[in-house]
Amino acid sequence: MTSLGWAVSWHFLFGNASRIVNMQIIDATIFHPLLHILESVVELQTVTRVERPPQWPTKGASTYTRQQQRQSQYENQRQYESQYENQRQYESQYENQRQYESQYQRHYDPGDSLPPPPPPPEMPMLEPQEYNDPGLLMMELQRSQMWGKSSVEEVQRRQTDPAVIARTQAAAEKVMAELGEDPEFEESWIPYNSLYFTRAISQGAFGEVWLAQLENTQVAVKKILDEKKHDVKEIECFGEEIKLMALLKHPKIVGFIGVSWSDTQDLCAVTEFMAKGDLCCYLERRKGKLNWPSHNVWLAEDIAEALVYLHSLSPKIIHRDLKSKNILLDNKFRAKLSDFGISRKRSAEETMTAGVGTIYWTAPEVLMGKKYTEKADIYSFGIVMSEMDTCEVPYSDQRDNSGKELSSMKIIQLVIRQTLRPSFLENCPEQIKALADRCLNSNPDVRPGAPELLDILRDIQNDLQQ
Questions:
Q1: Catalytic hit among 321, 339, 377, 389
Q2: What angle do CA 17, 21, 23 make, to 5 degrees?
Q3: In this structure, which CATH number among 3.30.70.270, 3.90.1170.40, 3.30.200.20, 3.40.50.1820 belongs to the domain 152-273?
Q4: What pLDDT is stored for residue 9 in this prediction?
């Protein structure tokens, strides 16, 4: 048999071995050795036929497919490297910041040139806006009240933060230097160790007042609240208040005695002590025992005299926080105006958010963020007249349909919409009601000026005495 014949035969046998055996075309006993060899070859081919993983390009894959696969792998690698680079940069910045803070905490000295680390962001406080919708105002007041109160954690942070301490010390030193250089304070500085503190008298949103002994005289000492001592703005405002108190000299304004400090943490103002306390507490104690002819009209005249003086200055001084708490009584139960902490530097928004109660005395134009004049004090005076008549906090008698007290926000909404005014008793003199009605008018131009207000009160006094 030729070579070609053997090749064809072997090709036939190898390619059809299984079919030959299964179909029994050839007797297996005759060709047993040959069939054994053929079956081994077929089994070997079956075992070695292994499929390649689908993710790897097969030998017959097109060039375009392989390029796509390589491009995908490259893109994944590039994204991974980008993420790694971002992480590395972040860790580098963190390490630099940590080293900087460590260096600052170890070696900082107020005299060094090393600047303090950037301070934490201040609590958000928006500038006063033009409010056309009372609903927007309510949202602003609620937000400001929430942020206006320092948390315990924030106070503790300010008391221990080296950067905050450095800034407040610098601010206090600046205020003290200005007071020391002012000729008005040359003879009014009081050694701090000559003040003997007795007890706390009152506390407001920004400061507290203590009863103290100066030689043989009882005096009132106003200090910054502990939680405000590390607030640069509070220190600056208190410095402005002290300067203003020293300038105001009138028998119907609480007298300024001097200023005192031993270090940057205890700056204080010393004033005359008003033995009978504030008008608010006095009205509460004397509820039902006061009337306009015998006493109230005299108190109203005292307050009006103080406003005439303030509004006659150049530039005019607007008190902006006129209420019964800031009207003090001496031993003869005559009234004097006090607390000028928000007469200058503090914004109208700070006035509104200093305390929920303060906004009851605030004029509508101030509440709405509009420009205002000294007539805002006249509106507050009208609210005080309601207090003196009812001996109650303004709007405390207001109820909703279910009998519950109206919320502060609801009251202010109604005031802005000109649908609510404070109450007066039925037996209140008509002249007093008419004057209060003018003072509480939503249009500032309709309200009387302080001189006219004083003249009207004197006329009312003469009428009531007859």
A1: 321
A2: 115
A3: 3.30.200.20
A4: 55
